[in-house]
Amino acid sequence: MAEHNTEDAVPTVIADELHIVYRVHGAKTGKGSATAALSRIVKRGEERGVRKVHAVKGVSFVAYRGEAIGLIGSNGSGKSTLLRAIAGLLPAESGKVYTNGQPSLLGVNAALMNDLTGERNVILGGLAMGMSREEIRERYQSIVDFSGINEKGDFITLPMRTYSSGMAARLRFSIAAAKDHDVLMIDEALATGDRKFQKRSEERIRELRKEAGTVFLVSHNNKSIRDTCDRVLWLERGELRMDGPTEEVLKEYEKFTGK
Amino acid sequence: MPAQAAHHEDEGFQPVSETTHDGTVALSAFPPPDEGLTAAQLADKYGLTVSGARPSLVEYVRQLWDRRHFILAFSQAKLTAQYSQAKLGQLWQVATPLLNAAVYYFIFGVILHASRGLPQEVYIPFLVTGVFVFTFTQSSIMTGVRAISGNLGLVRALHFPRASLPISFALQQLQQLLFSMIVLFVIVIAFGSYPGLSWLLILPILVLQFLFNTGLALIVARMGSKTPDLAQLMPFILRTWMYMSGVMFSINHMLAGRSEAFIRVMQLNPAAIYMDLMRFALIDGYGASNLPPHVWAVALFWSVVVFAGGFVYFWKAEERYGRG
Fold it and tell me: Min CA distance, A125 vs chain B (Å)?
């Protein structure tokens, strides 16, 4: 387990009583008919037709430099939401997140376009993550090689919609992992591609960990959490249920999930 | 790490959810030297900053400038992706505006005779210029409304100044207009107006209109992020605006006989201003008498005020995009 001397315990992320609330439009009632929508408009009241989802409820923790922190919890427990809030991508309802530098989510999926060639997507994804054109030019070849897209012919010059789902996932991971980060957050990225590619990506994540100050990993795979993390936060229904060394928390978690 | 410190927690600070849940085990606490500090004090001590806070206006402009390559690449990617499934491919960039012009000519030129007061060799380029220039503003607004609400995935996944999106969409429309200009040049020349010095005015007109459109796109992007319904309403507002702006008819001729003040007010409409300037630059038979007084000052006024206002308005909500 990670042991911190008091001297080198430098915090990189501090969450202070963090609450996140999503607002979902048009989900107020089960009835989606026009008359139901009309009656919602006619009825007075604040924020008609908007349903609030309280995804993260008062979570506080401090993450230190050099830590690899796993986030576990059942589906919909607020793990991904918490990561987005740390990255400053989702505004907090109340409470605050303090960070050192700019935390980054490992993922560029949303910036890529299926109708463009893999080549253009590498450039677009890199730019979207804030890399400069020179950086992308330097790393272009290694991104393509890492993805292994061209192992079976010249696929990188074809539109991404022609890729198999595994190929597309590999290219996305390769683009996302090309950048160095201060605080890196990985959301279930370990399960992409075939066995060979998984090994390669686990290795890359270990490298990224060395370069990054702090790594957060969301996963439902307890094994990959054990392999990569030394501390685990357990979220359940948006609340922090447990925070501690990997083994202790995972033991409780496995008891809870009945494994 | 946290387990060791857990048993001598400081009472002054509640480290982690110890009482939120029955059976919760609180294992975490800060290491001894930082005990007793609040989160804010701790953050301050190590120079941590609030995540996702809105940068100052100057800093924001700097961040946007850093993302200029992304903004350009994103707009070009959108433009290319638009027709990549079509058999004729990028040819549609030119064919779409051409077909648009043909439809408007058929309805307004042939059926409705809206050319009133304009000879045929002026009316057709007049109409086509109007359609293309107005479409530039119209589609900048339409894509602007959805710039944030239609790209929530991107907004929630990556960190970049959000104004990149509406600006990028406006830029995409500008590139689209440049394709249309090819068609426009052919039509204008075919009807007897040859390139001359006045064609140099196209550049400043495009710059002014682009600034104006970007400002509008920024404004509706913020409004659309809060109220996505605006995307449904916008086509009606835009169509009303189009019919008021004299796309298919000359405001001067159509309103002849009305009071001078009324005509002047109608002509101050920014869409009408940019259209008339473009017609003036391109078409020989469309002289300065068709332009309202101080036309350049008005055009400049609209673009500067709308762009600056839109930019500040959009920036003010920067940290709130992506919620809900």
Answer: 9
